[in-house]
Amino acid sequence: MNKQTKFQVGDKAYKPKGYDFPCTIVGVFETVGGDIRVVGEMDNYGLLHIFNEGQLEPVETITASAEEQLIHLLETQLVDISMMSKIELGDDVIAEINRLKDIIADIKRLQDLYF
After folding, report:
1. Is residue 2 part of a domain?
2. d(CA 18, CA 91)
3. Which of the four pLDDT bands, split at 50, 70 and 90, describes residue 27?
4. Staple 15 to which of 21, 32, 85, 90, CB 3.0 to 4.6 Å?
């Protein structure tokens, strides 16, 4: 297989849409038609499932992204508050902070399945 793949054997992944499927990648291959397929072994159950690459997301990538977004948002708001002597955060900022916290909580729940 000469194609660049999203996953390597041993990577931890999860299915972000639909049913939960926390898994470890146990196989990556190319179909006769040239499409990449990924075999995930469901953690704690051993169930094997073949996915399109786009159906799974790496656990580590999502964690870093959500945490970085939250940190960046908080940093920029603190700068704005200090520069403008603003006392309260706007409703839109609070909603975004809560959204990112929910993402982080979901990720931590998935990581608890692994570790």
Report:
1. no
2. 30
3. very high
4. 21
Residues 30 and 36: their CA atoms lie apart, in Å, by: 5
In this structure, the answer to whether residues 76 and 64 fall within a common structural domain is yes
17: CB partners within 8 A, 6+ apart? 55
Which domain, by its residues, includes 31? 12-57
pLDDT (tens digit per residue) in 52-95: 999 999 987 556 667 777 777 777 776 677 667 656 667 787 78
4 domain-assigned: no
Those residues with Cβ within 8 angstroms of residue 49's Cβ, 6 or more apart along the chain or in another chain? 21, 23, 39, 40, 42
- Cβ atoms of 59 and 103 within 8 Å: the answer is no
Measured over the CA atoms of residue 47, residue 48, residue 50 and residue 51, the dihedral's sign is positive
Query: Which of 23, 29, 22 has the alpha carbon at shortest distance from 3?
Result: 29
Residue 50 is predicted with a pLDDT of 97
Bridge partners for 52 per DSSP: 37
